[in-house]
Amino acid sequence: MFHTIYSTLEKNQFNGALYLETSNEDSISLTLGYKDLDNSISITENTLFDIASLSKMYTAVMVLQLIEKKAISLEDTLTKWFHTDTFKNVTIEHLLTHTSGIPEYLGNASIKDIEEILHVKEPYFPAGSGWFYSNSNYVLLAKIIEHTSKLSYEDYLQKMIACPLHLQHTTSKPEAEQIAVGRLFDYINKKYISLTEDTVFKDMDKLCSFYGDGSIYSTAKDVARFIKGFIQGKLVSVEFVKRAITPSPLNNNYGYGFVIQDDSFGHSGGWPGYSSHCFCSLTSKKMTILLMNEEVSPVYEQQILAFLNNPEDMKQLIAPKHPSIMLINNTDNIEGTYELADEYQTRFTIKRGIDYFIISFDDQHDTHLFKIEPNLYWIRNTMSYINIRDRIFIEEGIEIPFNKQ
């Protein structure tokens, strides 16, 4: 199996690291490509990747540890640690399950400290009445961990997660030489570039001071050790393991920091230049960890994951690493503000760039909107498309009508 996987991934120019365990407990650890493309330095098993939102699993486990020790409870409200009237009814459980209604910080560049969002933003909905994935929830949880434990997030991570499981390559404070350098793709000039060279995402490094929602660096093997230690009850009791991977009443696919879908649980993550996936079967010992340090098409990424899940069934991948785009011209007049016909009446604005458009959603970071067909536009690094002629927003195959405001 190793040869089949290695040769297929090499043929399809995979760059990253992976760890697999089959239902028979056979394991495969594999690295391909470069951790530093400019200097042709290869990835090794000890190369650290930014695991992005996989970090939420670790933050959730830290919180559950504090709950088991009765240092905090699921019902504790934010007012125990923060001054807020607007979000005074938000509890620990609301933060864990993304049911707090607290807006996303990533699209609010003026926010320098996460507590500011509690004073300058209004809730999307009353706490506990809706579901919205917001990184802010987990940044706040990280602060609560620090307040309660009297340790920094990194020190708590090392003391209560890394040391008990012997994770020698897991940290939120990596050395530069340990890191797989993330690369973004320049769709206009068709080459890889650094984060600081990207016209839209170059300011994202200013948000690196936030943690809890992301910020952990690790290897594929260490992520696997964390997941196994968690499900074996080495970090929290089996009772809390079950609660963590049980969907919340407001979302069938999210528990306490873990995504639950089909027959598996885990999480996926993304940050400019990085993507990560971790899924573990609920009924067998099958596990897939995939870490990448270059921007690729989400369709390519999903095909890689599907192949790794059943390497015998699909030896030929067909999705390109990057979709072909069309440069815009003066006849492409799609600028304006639009509103989706969804439950939140989500609004987005399209602005013109030089060879592409820029799309922005409320409280989300701007991103490219690339033209891929005469009337079809792709939101960069997503599975979302906009059919301008038919006024249809397509998100992971689901069609949502929209109108221009």
UniProtKB/TrEMBL annotation:
Location of the protein in the cell: Membrane
Q: Which UniProt keywords apply?
A: Membrane
Q: Where is the Beta-lactamase-related domain?
A: 12-299
**Which Pfam families does the record cross-reference, listed alphabetically?**
Beta-lactamase
Q: Name the InterPro entries on file.
A: AmpC-like, Beta-lactam-related, Beta-lactam/transpept-like
Q: Is RNA-binding tagged as a keyword?
A: no
Q: What is its main location?
A: membrane
Q: What is this protein called?
A: CubicO group peptidase (Beta-lactamase class C family)
Organism, as annotated: Bacillus chungangensis
